[in-house]
Amino acid sequence: MNLAGFVPLSLCDYPGRVAAVVFTQGCNFRCPWCHNGHLLPMTPDPVSRVDEARVMAVLAERRTRLGGVVVTGGEPTLQADLPHFLKRLKALGLDVKLDTNGSHPDVLRRLFDERLVDYIAMDMKAPWDKYATLTGGACDVEAMQASLKLIATSGLPHAFRTTRVDPLLTQQDYDRLADQIPEGSEHVWQLFRPAYSRDPALRTEVPVH
Fold first, then answer.
1. CB atoms near residue 162 (< 10 Å)
2. Is the residue at 156 inside a domain?
3. 100 and 75 in contact (C-beta within 8 Å)?
4. CATH number at residue 54
5. Is it the case that residue 206 has pLDDT exceeding 80?
6. Which tens digits make up the pLDDT trace of 46-79?
7. Containing domain of residue 173, as a range?
């Protein structure tokens, strides 16, 4: 696995669980409000790359104190070794929460079929007709819709998440986006953090170091 970050303990990333968080390197979207710009390139900075063996060793040591592991990114479904990595987590007795942008429903289907995911969260960026613009380029909307349906009917605990980027989306956009969420699925509105946006034009605040 191409890993670029590891948080051994989190109380807010896996609903109702004490969890560790693993960040994968690389994303196929270029959302202007992204606050994890260092995770976008497929090739990581050698200085920041995280050793998988070290992560597994820490998780093995703490597995009785953790309720699960969150695998996020970047976009985890771009990682060819993702199924194998999740199997290793499950072998430790750890539940897995996967964060995804929904661009690879074929990968999600395999993970669901192999029972490698216990909770899944998919980011919903915009109304369908604005997806390509707000993800920075070509976007297979039909793939996104397939992932939406797959997750909603999976029987797994899940949530769809949207960042409210008021400079780029209107209330009408938010209303239309909310209508895209399947009935019975949780939809979470997330806080926009402008200071760390990938697009400098959105940085209305200066980060404090």
1. 20
2. yes
3. yes
4. 3.20.20.70
5. no
6. 877 899 999 999 999 999 999 999 999 999 999 9
7. 3-202
